[in-house]
Amino acid sequence: MNQKYEFAEIEAKWRNIWAGQKADKAVHDPNKKKFYLLEMFPYPSGRIHMGHVRNYAIGDLLGRFYRMNGYNVLHPMGWDAFGLPAENAAIERGTHPHKWTLQNISAMREQIKALGVGYDWDREIATCHPGYYKWTQWFFLQFMKKGIAYRKKTFVNWCGKCHTVLANEQVEDGACWRCDTHVVQKEMVGWFLKITDYAEELLADLELLAGKWPDRVLTMQKNWIGKSVGAKVKFAVDGASESIEVFTTRPDTLFGAMFVCLAPEHELTKKLSAGGTEEAKVAEFLKTVAKQDTLARTSEDAEKLGVFTGRYAVNPMNGEKIPVWSANFILAEYGTGAIMSVPAHDTRDFAFAKKYNLPIRRVVLQEGEDEKAPLESAYSGDGLLVSSGNFTGMNNREAVPKINEFLKTAGAGEGSTVYRLRDWGISRQRYWGSPIPVIHCHKCGVVPVPEKDLPVVLPTDANLLSEGRSPLPELESFLNVQCPRCGADAKRETDTMDTFICSSWYYHRYTSPRCESAPALREEIDYWMPVDKYIGGIEHAILHLLYARFFNKFCRDIGLLKADEPFSNLLTQGMVIKDGAKMSKSKGNVVDPDDILRRYGADTARVFILFAAPPERDLEWDDSGIEGSHRFVTRVYRLFAKWIPELRDFKGGGDAPDAELRRMRHVTIKRFTLDVRDRTHFNTAIAAGMELLNFLADYAPKNDDDKAELKGTLLDYLKVLHPFMPFLTQELYSEFGYGEYLTTVKWPEYSEAFTVSDVQTIVVQVMGKVRAKLEVPVGTPEEEIKKLALVQEKVVQAIGSGTVKKIIVVPGRLLNIVF
RNA sequence: GCGAAAGUGGCGGAAUUGGCAGACGCGCUGGACUUAGGAUCCAGUGGGCAACCGUGGGGGUUCGAGUCCCCCCUUUCGCACCA
Asked: How far in angstroms lies nucleotide B12's C1' from the CA of residue A572?
């Protein structure tokens, strides 16, 4: 065999062979236990970057590992192919998003193939393909049927640069998640999905994921859903027919409510002040608030501003008339958009009352406190109720259900739960996305496109407009259509769907990617789902992962599948950074994967990336580190080049080989198995591989038994290394005379008994400090070890004239002499 | 401000249950081979001359602490008027 490691040749050779054999094809087989492995599919931006390489290297390693361990592995790849960058790039370059996207897909597919990732390419999907988005649209129709998709006019997040609306999840610190442009509020009509119908289940089922998803992600989702338990209470407006409904988490403090506060956007703010003494002041106030930036207005340290509306509300508990205010810190979209203010027991209300000189009344007291004593700050803790009518004297927490009951009887409210989660705004005023399949008819109103007419094809001949606006509203051939209900002239909806919809169900589609009768075949989807390991970046902690969970639950509810949760296990990989910063063109610290592959080959690139850090941690790219990994891969090659000619045809040998060689063999298999399967820490597995290499490099067999053991060790070594460096190991396996695809070869087993040496080192400590080490045969009696330890020169010295009080023994490891 | 995670040699990182801190690799030093070395191989490499000292700092528990407890510092991330 070639003495030199020609990685380019080796990798090209096996890439072709595997592709020709469709070696990584996944086939539904109910008799085999399945393993669905998935990396978050990429946006086809044009080139892969190191983050992708890391993502796929981790995925491929696990895919091959589980296959070798007897699982039927589904490991697919596809493209999140709709989205804004395609449009922007197309405008810039004078091409078309469709063409640009398809070109990018071909280029990136080649790059990924070069990495040697064992995907089942027959299952490749692209969300911009009509065969795919037909079903995206179909889902929209199902949502409509169930009343989950609806249209409303409301204030939405508008990104001026992207020229489109954004969902709440897509706004980060008041800026567009994609381009960082400051988001403004704009009132417009759009489509929404009632994800809030699933708020409780999305929250509760996080329990099912505990321990299997990173805690960080679970916490983020929990906070995002933001459940609050409390009560809704109606305050009648004095001298008016309206009443104000407020939400509070503290119905126990109702008797301390000194005023009511409306959000400026609340319809009653204008209505109640109209014609009253405060009308002008309220109007002025609303103008000021309108000018305030949303982000600034809702930040904690923003100045609290308010205005009296001139009206009074009646507290249903005690009939007390309290003033109605409007305040800038009240959010129209949370709860009911109105609150009752209890300055004594809420920090914000306290500050507000102080500022506008409003009264404060304590209704929850700690033991021994004086009700009349002035408050320095709000007390939000527990205690006994005072000044609370029939509830006076009760423990505040115990009073809550009783007060709720009273409210209900009085018709003034009831216990209630609200969520911070808002409905998902999915209309996008852009072109390169899936059309929303509805038609607007003068007579019939909004009419869904009949399922048989799907897909509503996105025309690929549209001329893009330079300012980014969608060409669809001006494209007559797309726009004009007959109403499917009455046949009259009608117009198509020109908004497209948020691309997060496309990515909310792609993992279902992989299970039967060419199915034409449904999004996926029931028996396929129920066999493969849920995804057993999902690998991707933490940046989707809320966005994609929340949307996908919602979609999956909806799919379950309409009878498409049975899994409650789509992703049983989530691995969030860290970023690839260089010089302490995320790789980016603007920082000029980008390492091009192609360049690395050309210089070192895919096996080296993978080994480096897996070795440099455990997967969830950020990985610091290091040019000399990759040299080191290349050295390791090359040394592996040379080791085999040395032994294969001699061992290839060697047969025979007995079962009494060199114990140390045998121990190294079993220890290595054990470490690989546990590190990959249980810990998903690949860096330590590679370290074990390096240790075995260091051992084998100096090893010389003394007899045929040793030779047989060495051959077995080398073959096992190839197997455990295979998921890390598939090309090289396959080449060496074949040089050894074996024909099979290594990924289909059984993962080696280790014997616990062979992992232990027959001598062991016992550390001898005196008062916790290491003074000596003893080499003793396994099974040496404790008494004998103690005796030996006590005569060690260093031990005698350390004890000096002291008397030994006790000796602590950790069997097989350590001995601590206390005096 | 609140919450979470992290802090270990010059660097990336090991130490799985409280039991030899620094595995493995990078880098560095010296050597071998060589016309040459940015190839390869060998040896060494936490600090200190030593006793000893060392896992962000300070206390504690324990025969024994990187690991457990308390206080503090730093970094990263998340949340941040949510009634």
From this structure: 20
What average pLDDT does range A15-26 have in this prediction?
96
pLDDT of residue A523: 95
- pLDDT per residue as tens digits for the range A503-539: 999 999 999 999 999 999 999 999 999 999 999 998 8
Our measurement of CA A174 to C1' B76, in angstroms, reads 21
CA atoms of A583 and A808, how far apart (whole Å): 53
Nucleotide nearest to A173 (CA to C1'): B80
Q: Which residues face A424 on adjacent strands?
A: A193
Supply the pTM of this predicted model: 0.94
Q: Locate A606 and state its tokens.
A: 């993978």
Beta bridge partners of A496: A428, A435
CA of A769 to C1' of B59 (A): 22
The whole-number average pLDDT for the span A457-465 is 87
What is the spatial distance, in angstroms and rounded to an integer, between the CA atom of A220 and the C1' atom of B59?
35
pLDDT in tens, A767-790: 888 888 888 888 888 889 999 888
- The residue whose CA lies nearest the C1' of nucleotide B1 is A300
Query: Which helix (H) or strand (E) element contains residue A576?
Result: strand A576-578
Nearest to A151 by CA among A585, A495, A629: A495
Asked if residue A747 has pLDDT above 90, the reply is yes
Distances (CA, A) of A378 to A114, A239, A384, A659: 64, 32, 15, 73
Q: Give the residue with minimal CA–C1' separation from B27.
A: A624
Give the CA-to-C1' distance from A625 to B37 in angstroms: 20
Calpha distance A762→A774 (Å, rounded): 5
**Pair of tokens at residue A535:** 């690998």
Residue A778 CB contacts under 8 Å (≥ 6 apart), including other chains: A756, A757, A758, A759, A760, A812
The residue that minimises its CA distance to C1' of B23 is A687
Task: Report the DSSP beta bridge partners of residue A313.
Answer: A237, A322
Nucleotide nearest A760, CA–C1', reads B20
pLDDT of residue A291: 82
DSSP one-letter code for A567 = B
Q: What is the ipTM of this complex?
A: 0.95
Chain B: nucleotides under 7 Å from a protein CB?
3-5, 11-16, 19-21, 23-27, 39-42, 53, 63-65, 77-83
